[in-house]
Design brief:
The structure is a homotrimer.
Chain A: H1 5-28, E1 32-34, E2 41-42, E3 45-46, H2 48-66, H3 76-96, H4 101-119, H5 123-145, E4 149-151, H6 165-184, H7 187-190
């Protein structure tokens, strides 16, 4: 691990909390549903879901620190905005999941590209985004294929999962790359609020 | 009053106009409804509503000028963007008010936090936001309790008013703190458009 | 033409692609519909539609270069964000077109003003926005009057077309003015990605 333990814990908790909030919106809008109820739940999510998102967040962060390219830290306000922006896009997918999938995908993709253009600084940040945009949907396809959960008929155009998962995970991956860069450079600690 | 009269009038009018636009969206979507029709109306609002929002906007602005912390002015384009962003979040609450309240609240809160992170500069700005996020919903709870207006069943989880009022008023309060800072420092007047 | 041929082609293609994506969202949500089916189609659009949007985009860009005022280039990330933001607003109109028209118009207008405030730099940029906000809706009114296409009853308040076309075209025009400024100054070519 290249992240110090408290920073790794922070990244894991940020991912888990964001996953819980977004997943709750998906479940409440019936965008997704859990088929396997024989597992412990927390809020609207199976317990393994926020754990998986947290570990995925940590993994993307650790990968970023192993890639070449300068670590560009976010300021404290940008750090908060980056997390909130990804959660907002996550919640947006829940709100528009009932529309024809081309419509929801166009909207989510265009909003995600705005977020990516704002947050990306280095090629390594973009690689993290593309990695998340590949691994995330693939993992969800496997979960759906295993009959553990399902996506609504209006949001299952990518082998059973939503096409808009790709831009959502892209924005997530780029944001996490910047969060990890920020934590690793310790810049959050040295900038005291006024 | 620490604001010069024209600046105070500007803040009052901005608040009243924003309140009228947002309230119209709430009434049109049946997010809210007036129960007491025996009062004069303007557009979709009881006349007292834009007056109250305008006075509240002015009050937050005056409070900001009495708090310590440097007054950080917005540029002219940011000034317009701050007003429009709060109106956009206000209208967003109308559009998503029919969703389960946890979903609408998560979306409105995450978008509001992005706006707050963009606009907040000093602890005093944040205090204005928290003050608005407390006083605003409390005032609306009192209005609903007095049977003057009501919120839709999908948006009444906070003692009869919408939970997303809290992040909406938070973004409003922080934005108004910056608007007041801008007007008080006179920076809008000295920056002529090119 | 003041744009070099490859830059003119880029602007035309960006406009045509954006038009295709947004129009598909409009057609899929029945915000708009083509009445004349005796023409070739591409995706959900009559072939003439992306051609017209592409030519309109090029025209706005050429007009910008003929207006006084310094050409303020966008950075590469802002260039992508400007395009995506306009497409996002376009898709947003599709998603909210079923709401009462005052609601959809207030939301689209407030979001568009945020985008305009972010992108506008010179009076000439704003003139391009106002030109697009005038010519675009007028052209669509003529198309609807000729029974070639129609807008849904919830989005036809401006002589048969949607009122929110005005702020949508405003944001489009300002963004295109900056895209053209960027291409004309050649600043995209000299800033290599890291």
């Amino acid at each position: 691990m290249r992240l110090r333990s408290p920073d790794a814990a922070a990244l894991l908790l940020i991912g888990a909390a964001g996953g819980l909030i977004g997943d709750a919106a998906h479940v409440e809008t019936a965008t997704t549903g859990y088929l396997d109820r024989g597992v412990p739940f927390i809020w609207n999510s199976a317990l393994w879901f926020p754990v998986a998102v947290g570990l995925g967040t940590l993994a993307i962060g650790e990968i970023r620190l192993r890639l070449p390219g300068s670590l560009e830290p976010l300021g404290p306000r940008e750090f908060v905005a980056a997390i909130s922006a990804v959660i907002a896009i996550y919640c947006l997918t829940a709100v528009v999941s009932g529309f024809p999938e081309s419509v929801s995908t166009s909207l989510v993709a265009s909003v995600s590209v705005v977020a990516v253009a704002w947050l990306v600084r280095t090629r390594a940040d973009l690689i993290c985004g593309m990695l998340a945009a590949t691994a995330g949907p693939l993992a969800e396809i496997a979960i759906v294929a295993a009959d553990v959960s399902r996506y609504a008929p209006s949001a299952d155009g990518l082998a059973g999962v939503a096409v808009w998962l790709v831009p959502l995970y892209l924005a997530f991956g780029v944001a996490v790359a910047r969060l990890a860069s920020t934590l690793a450079t310790g810049s959050l600690r040295i900038r005291a609020p006024r």
